[in-house]
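Exercise 4. Each item below gives a protein and its sequence. For each, produce the structure-token representation.

Item: DNA processing protein (Saccharothrix variisporea).
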Amino acid sequence: MSLDRSELHALLYIKRVAEPPAPAAHDFVATVGVVEVAAAIRAGTAPAAVAAEVNRPDADIGPDLEALDRGQVRLLTPEDAEWPRERLACLEAGGLTPPLALWVRGTASLAELTASSVTVTGSRAATGYGNHVAAEFGFDFAEAGVTVVGGGGYGIEGAAHRGALIAERPTVVVLPCGVDRPYPAGHAVLLDNVAERGGLLVGEYPVGAAPARHRFAARVRLLAALGGATVVVEAGRRSGAAAIARTSASLGRRVYGVPGPITSTLSVGVHELLRDGPARLATAVADVELDGLSVAADGAVP
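Answer:
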């Protein structure tokens, strides 16, 4: 972590008081720096747009400092060597707010893990077919040296992460809560395995932060950006998986959809992505252009 103590305290405070993505706070930090922004928020002199994003001006950073001191979690900033700058560069270019920092649990380098990566997502209420396909894709991507990125949820995402772990390869989970908090609770063992077997739990939110609807929405941009492409296995029409796919396409990433039965409501979203765009058909990992999953290919999608 490339911060002195005053900068660290200021950054932790900003991340506590201004809920990510907090675009005004992000821009203010880029202009004057974290120490000055934290001081302005505390003094009530921050620009109106920043003040509007502040919801907890008396936030306590004690739990964050304690977790860092104990080595339970780490905090990455854009100045760190393992910051995935090539992956996240598409956010600002696409009109979305990059994270000020990322919390991680695990010892691996996020930049290295996402140097060749794919986001696999889909329905939480997956069918047996969907779970089987997702696990198979996760295993085959991992065997090909591609890191599987996902949200760690029930159904498709959990199956894809398990597939990667069965292949004895690392995988990355992006959480809508603090990385110290197992979510969903039923995947506590899976999340522990991810962190302990060379992978990472990643998130924007401070220690102890609970999952919430707006945090799921904010997480979409990170899931879309951290993979070199997105593969959707089962998704409803207005699902989070479909939102990730469309965001991924808007950032210049390729999107792939795995078809399912035309009678299945869980395949409606995938079929619409295939019919109307932006998805390409994928029935196996062989259908995915693996060369396009590396950071060298970012921005090269026609």
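Check: The CA atoms of residues 222 and 289 lie 21 Å apart.
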